């Protein structure tokens, strides 16, 4: 099989194969995500996480006692809807993370345009590279479920038809979401001037993250025929693509009730429309706008030099703190590299907020405080602070390092304090404001206010913990790639962070009803926050700002110490031979 695939690949044109390999390396920002900027390792980590999720879902299908009739139908429908929705979520995240990679950029025009390459070759190579990552995601996520579900539905005799229908529906759902993102991006790039599109692109990316994650967490599962045909659910079914492709799969499987055929029809119609729109926008972008990409700036200036008009800039303490906070905020707003990384964290925060309000919104009335709401706010604060701290380490450009290095007019202590101010204002403060709005849905309000005070202290503690050992200005230090292991980060939260947040949430819920215990808890958190702040301030007095991250010195040994010396008789025998 491997030889067959290799032989088929060698028949492709050489220029296409070379471009495909290069574009595959640029589908994601490897400097921020991979181990030592190695695409196979990153894809292996990415696929490993999805395979584990698929195995857990497949195992859940067989740990139940034997079921028949409506109970079996309910289990299989729930699994089908969940896997199709998860596949569409992953496809959407892949499309948003690789936002600009399928469209031509300045590097493509400057390097590839002078070469004897056709635009269609460049386009096909980019589509193939993006499709490879999308295919790996779909294959890894559904590898186990695509075996377990057909066995449960049809056994050995009906395995192949059901498995083929499942894979056809999964691939169609992935292509639908990916094409939808490409169509929106391509049509926006064609209709708007390039300068305005670069500004709108940031909002579109953040909106894409919020849309996919929010829809995934808020969308209910209708796993009974009565729920699917209920009148109150028809509007949701009409506007929720996961249900379209659920009907699409069951139509291919010839098990779709007659009253739900319109869902499959919507899937066919939607798939055709978005694929056509994506193809047209891609072709127009390559053949109409490639010449306009040469002067495309990586950072869009916030104000055109020489432009007249009123301009106001907020202040955040001293002039240095204001400069660092504004530099950080504008870097996040204008740099695609940093915008994608931080938007992913913000989208997770938004999705957690929506999931915490899911039952409250459904009830349409305030509810008593629960530990689940506390856990949600803790996770929002943790993800926001850690996400922004990780983005701080990525440089805007190496030129900025030298500019800030030669203009260091203040002590290092003030720069580190400004960095802490930026982290608190751009990560902790927005999450806290979001928690204030969420707390209005819970009663009593005085207990919600007590939790908000605790959340403030938790935000300060997380900010100071993330700055221990950091002596650099945000976005102004070179970055050594390969520091993040996506598997450790993904599994670290459910294994370590979730249990700690759950325990502390339960403890806080009990303490809120006892004023003296609450005062002791707030005092302890305040002492920890002040201690961490004092420790960072004391360390900052003797710290030296660094703008270059140097790789650790690695001593390479030949491993000769583990080799046993030859016996004396063998040495004498060897000398006798000479």
Protein model, in words:
The protein is mainly α. It has 2 domains: 2-293, no CATH class; 319-541, no CATH class. It is built from 24 helices and 2 strands. It has helices at 2-10, 14-24, 30-33, 39-62, 69-97, 106-112, 119-142, 145-154, 159-191, 194-218, 225-229, 234-239, 241-252, 261-288, 319-334, 336-356, 358-363, 371-392, 398-406, 412-439, 445-466, 486-511, 515-541, 568-577, and strands at residues 367-368, 442-443. The chain has a two-stranded parallel ribbon with strand order 1-2.
Q: What proportion of the residues form beta strands (DSSP E)?
A: under 5%
Which consecutive residue ranges, at least 5 long each, have pLDDT under 50? 30-37
Helix-strand category:
mainly alpha
Order of helices and strands: HHHHHHHHHHHHHHHHHEHHHEHHHH
Helix count, DSSP H or I runs of 4 or more residues: 24
Q: How many distinct beta strands?
A: 2
CA radius of gyration is 28 Å
Q: Major β-sheet, in short? A: 2 strands, parallel
How many structural domains does the protein architecture include? 2
Distance between the termini: 54 Å
Give the strand order of the largest sheet, numbering strands 1, 2, ... along the chain: 1-2
Shape verdict? globular
Work out the helicity level. Answer: over 70%
Mean pLDDT: 79
């Amino acid at each position: 099989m491997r030889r067959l695939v290799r032989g088929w690949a060698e028949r492709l044109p050489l220029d296409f194969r070379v471009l495909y390999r290069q574009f595959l390396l640029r589908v994601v920002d490897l400097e921020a995500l991979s181990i030592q900027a190695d695409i196979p390792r990153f894809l292996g980590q990415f696929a490993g996480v999805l395979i584990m999720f698929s195995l857990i879902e497949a195992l859940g299908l067989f740990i139940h006692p034997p079921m028949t009739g409506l109970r079996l139908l309910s289990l299989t429908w729930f699994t089908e809807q969940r896997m199709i929705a998860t596949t569409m979520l992953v496809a959407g995240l892949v499309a948003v993370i690789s936002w600009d990679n399928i469209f031509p950029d300045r590097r493509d025009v400057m390097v590839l345009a002078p070469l004897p390459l056709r635009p269609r070759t460049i386009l096909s190579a980019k589509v193939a590279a993006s499709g490879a990552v999308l295919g790996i995601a779909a294959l890894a996520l559904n590898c186990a479920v695509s075996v377990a579900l057909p066995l449960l539905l049809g056994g050995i005799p009906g395995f192949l038809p059901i498995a083929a229908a499942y894979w056809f529906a999964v691939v169609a759902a992935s292509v639908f979401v990916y094409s939808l993102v490409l169509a929106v991006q391509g049509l926006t790039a064609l209709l708007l001037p390039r300068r305005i599109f670069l500004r709108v692109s940031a909002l579109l990316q953040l909106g894409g993250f919020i849309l996919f994650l929010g829809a995934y967490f808020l969308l209910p599962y209708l796993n009974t025929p009565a729920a699917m045909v209920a009148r109150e659910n028809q509007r949701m079914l009409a506007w929720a693509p996961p249900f379209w492709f659920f009907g699409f799969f069951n139509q291919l499987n010839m098990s779709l009730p007659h009253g739900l055929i319109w869902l499959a029809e919507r899937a066919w119609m939607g798939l055709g429309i978005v694929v056509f729109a994506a193809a047209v926008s891609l072709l127009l972008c390559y053949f109409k706008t490639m010449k306009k990409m040469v002067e495309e700036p990586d950072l869009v200036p916030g104000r055109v030099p020489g432009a007249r008009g009123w301009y106001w800039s907020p202040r955040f303490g001293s002039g240095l703190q204001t400069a660092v906070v504004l530099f950080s905020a504008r870097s996040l707003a204008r740099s695609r590299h940093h915008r994608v990384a931080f938007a992913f964290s913000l989208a997770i925060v938004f999705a957690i907020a929506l999931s915490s309000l899911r039952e409250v919104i459904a009830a349409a009335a305030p509810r008593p405080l629960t530990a689940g709401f506390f856990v949600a706010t803790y996770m929002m604060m943790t993800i926001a602070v850690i996400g922004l701290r990780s983005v701080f380490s990525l440089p805007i450009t190496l030129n900025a390092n030298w500019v800030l290095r030669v203009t260091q007019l203040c002590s290092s202590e003030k720069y580190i304090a400004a960095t802490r101010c930026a982290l608190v204002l751009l990560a902790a403060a927005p999450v806290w404001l979001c928690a204030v709005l969420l707390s209005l849905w819970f009663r009593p309000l005085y207990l919600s206010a007590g939790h908000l005070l605790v959340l403030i202290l938790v935000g300060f503690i997380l900010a100071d913990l993330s700055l221990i050992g950091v002596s650099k200005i945000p976005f102004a230090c070179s970055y050594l790639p390969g520091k993040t292991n996506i598997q450790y980060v993904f599994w670290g939260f459910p294994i370590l962070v979730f249990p700690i947040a759950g325990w502390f949430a339960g403890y806080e819920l009990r303490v809120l009803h006892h004023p003296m215990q609450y005062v002791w808890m707030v005092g302890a958190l305040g002492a920890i926050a002040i201690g961490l702040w004092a420790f960072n301030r004391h360390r900052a007095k003797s710290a030296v700002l660094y703008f270059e991250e140097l790789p650790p010195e690695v001593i390479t040994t030949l491993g000769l110490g583990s080799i046993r010396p030859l016996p004396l008789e063998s040495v004498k025998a060897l000398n006798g031979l000479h």
